[in-house]
Amino acid sequence: MQPDVFAFAKYVLLWILPTVLLVMAIGLFLTVLTENYSGILVSGLLWLAGRPSVGRIAGGNYELFDLIVRHNTLKGYGRMMEDIHMLVWNRVFISGMAFVLLALSVAVYEARRKGVGIFENRKLFNGFMGQRPHEL
CA 70 to CA 108: how far, in whole Å? Predict the structure, then answer.
């Protein structure tokens, strides 16, 4: 049996990329919405809240809303494969949420750029209104 030459690419694209996409989309959305650096703080808090518990680190028990999926054992491959459908749904859901937040970020940025609706001539959270002190 030949080793899988695409194992690294599959691991990165299917296991890690959805998590990175969602965290970056949350940061982008909050940064565009609030026009400050709150997205960085929320991303850090999301990382702390999303860490798997000790019981889940052994792997094989995945849920739909798990941001960080772990499987830290060389044994238990059968247990992981029993729940592979939930792992796939988890990665698809996390990726879908990232693309929804990306679309919302684009919509908010476009509305803010045009100055329509709630974004008309004001900032939401940092209290600065009116002209910017200098433009680049």
Answer: 34
